[in-house]
Design goal:
Rieske_2Fe-2S_sf, metal ion binding, Rieske Iron-sulfur Protein, 1 helix, mainly beta, metal-binding, three-stranded antiparallel β-sheet, iron-sulfur, single chain, binds FE2/S2 (inorganic) cluster
């Protein structure tokens, strides 16, 4: 049990900060259907992690293809099922059927070398 708890407190390396372009998004930990567990967006040089689960229909995946979580202008996260738009930095829905609801955050860590990681405990 102690070994399991130690493992869950470990960081999981995901990518380098430069692997995600400004205004772009990247999904991680795909299941057998190809749906990501969570995704990261980059806005104004900062990274924000969110669960790939739309608050409109609980648990609904949001991208229309791999890593496609942003709208065409790269200004908002977009759920491609029914067009909801979310602020990249807060996860708040500002347009669409789940207006006022929010995405569930996934804390993202970037070390001095630019390595991006998460804590496994944050995605259980
Ligand atoms: S499931 Fe996301 S907007 Fe409907």
């Amino acid at each position: 049990m102690a070994e399991l708890n130690k493992k869950l407190n470990e960081n999981m390396y995901l990518c380098h900060i430069d692997d995600i372009e400004e205004g772009a998004s990247k999904g991680f930990l795909s299941d057998e259907s190809g749906s990501d567990l969570f995704f990261i967006v980059k806005q104004e040089g900062q990274l924000f992690g969110w669960r790939n689960a739309c608050p409109h229909v609980d648990g609904a995946p949001m991208a229309w293809r791999k890593d496609a979580y942003m709208n065409s202008q790269h200004t908002f996260i977009s759920c491609h099922a029914h067009g909801a738009l979310f602020e990249p930095n807060t996860g708040l829905c500002v347009q669409g059927p789940c207006l006022g609801k929010s995405l569930k955050p996934v804390p993202v860590y970037v070390n001095q070398a630019g390595k991006v990681s998460i804590l496994l405990t944050d995605i259980r």
